[in-house]
Design brief:
The chain has helices at about 15-25, 65-75, 95-100, 120-125, 135-140, 150-170, 180-190, 260-275, 285-300; strands at about 5-10, 40-45, 50-55, 85, 195, 210-215, 215-220, 230-240, 245-255, 300-305, 310, 320, 340, 345, 355, 360-365, 370, 375-380, 385. The two termini are about 20 Å apart. The longest helix is centred in the middle third of the chain and has 24 residues, at about 150-170. It is α+β, with helices and mostly antiparallel strands and about 400 residues long. It is globular. The protein has nine helices and 19 strands. Bound molecules: 2-amino-4-trifluoromethylsulfanyl-butyric acid and cobalt (II) ion (2 copies). One cobalt (II) ion binds next to loops.
């Protein structure tokens, strides 16, 4: 899925102070749900620019047009003319974070425009989470819903089905088999086991599984096209069983692989293993990304930045975001009960990608091969347990 993405809008005129307050929404805590049904946009107005933090979109890039009317609506409710906005080209969340500072300093002026310091204003209203209560703290501070033993058991069941589906699909992989046949198999097998294929109709995705061949990084759409000898194909399966999601993918060789195919697939497989080894309480999300990035890059491969791992279980994509690159000790500390995927996408060439006209298929810009492996895991007191053990 896409990471959170920050966009900057240059204003042609200052936003009057009176606009500020309602423009400052805390994610999922919007005081104006009628304006923000999604409730998860974050606005950072200042004198001459407006930063908007968009929720993860999969796979489309932030849909400005989708969310923009909410702001316009607000302004029209106030019976004021909206200022003229000029969209500044996309930049990644990380870059914008660095440039503009996502965090509001406690001594800075509150973005609500009250004129008070942030710590004396909205920081108080948000309430201070109690670090003693880990569950409430993770929910409030990071938006992460920690899973209880009963939840984990349900996700494990969904995971067992995902793994079984993978095993059956593996037996079907051979030159000449059409991608639609694989899709239909996954669909039927999932339904026959009382589950639902999560991809089908997810944000408009038209099929029940993602099949990504060769230079396709992810979200390849099954169709009449067939597998060919020498291809590598990633099969990404997510099932919803008893209301719980499990998500896993792996890349297979079709027929006889080339040297390059073996290289990228084995580096991707080992990248996931390296990421998993970094999962234990006390380590951070950044440690996972660091382990993957340093391994894959040392092998001369690159790590895709535009799609990342994600919390999973109650929903397809939840917090936290799990980048496959990062710095040691940075990011959210791992605690037992966190359930998320690690799903490094590794390219033989550069990390850049573009999305095809179908709005889903992501391919490497340089046409190089790309491979991926994914498991859903839970952080345990000792380390982690895979809820979709693929036996890499
Ligand atoms: N399974 C993918 C992931 O690992 C998401 C696929 S979204 C879909 O996050 F709509 F293409 F299915
Ligand atoms: Co996933
Ligand atoms: Co997946």
């Amino acid at each position: 899925m896409h990471p959170w993405c920050l966009k900057r809008y240059q204003l042609s005129e200052e936003i009057p102070q009176s606009y500020y307050n309602p423009l400052f929404f805390h994610r999922k805590k919007s005081p104006h749900p009628h304006i923000h049904p999604s409730g998860n946009l974050k606005f950072f107005p200042s004198r001459l620019h407006l930063l908007i933090l968009f929720p993860p979109h999969c796979p489309q890039s932030p849909a400005t047009t989708l969310h923009w009317p909410h702001l316009a609506l607000y302004l029209s409710i106030r019976d004021e003319k909206p200022p003229v906005f000029q969209n500044i080209p996309d930049e990644t969340g990380a870059l914008m974070k660095k440039k503009f500072g996502l965090k509001i300093g406690r001594n800075e002026l509150c973005p609500c425009g009250s004129g008070k310091k942030y710590k004396k204003c909205c920081a108080l209203k948000k309430g201070t989470p109690d670090p003693e209560n880990v569950e409430a703290y993770y929910k409030k501070k990071y938006g992460i819903r920690l899973k209880k033993a009963e939840d984990i058991e349900k996700i494990r069941r969904a995971g067992d089905l995902v793994v079984e589906t993978h095993e059956r699909v593996k037996a079907l992989i051979k030159p000449g088999v059409s991608s639609d046949e694989i899709n239909d198999f996954v669909h039927e097998f999932t339904i026959n086991h009382g589950a639902k294929p999560a991809p089908l109709n997810y944000r408009g995705y038209p099929k029940s599984v993602c099949l990504s061949v060769n230079d396709v990084i992810c979200h390849g759409i099954p169709g009449s096209w067939a597998l060919e000898d020498g291809d590598i194909v990633n099969v990404d399966i997510t099932s919803i069983l008893g209301g719980y999601y499990a998500d896993a993918n792996q890349t297979h060789y079709v027929g006889t692989p080339s040297k390059e195919a073996i290289k990228v697939v084995e580096v991707a497989r080992e990248s996931l293993k390296q990421g998993l080894l970094a999962v234990r309480p006390g380590n951070t999300i950044g440690d996972i990304g660091h382990a993957i990035q340093s391994y894959a890059e040392a092998q001369g491969c690159s790590v895709v930045r535009d799609f990342i791992g994600h919390g999973v279980g109650y929903e397809f994509h939840e917090d936290p975001q799990v980048p496959h690159f990062g710095r040691k000790g940075h990011g959210i500390p791992l605690v037992p009960g966190m359930v998320f995927t690690i799903e490094p996408m590794i390219n033989l060439g550069g990390p850049e990608l573009y999305i095809l006209e179908d709005k889903w298929t992501a391919v490497t810009s340089d046409g190089s091969l790309s491979a991926q492996f994914e498991e859903t895991i839970v952080v345990t007191p000792e380390g982690f347990e895979s809820l979709t053990p693929l036996g890499l």
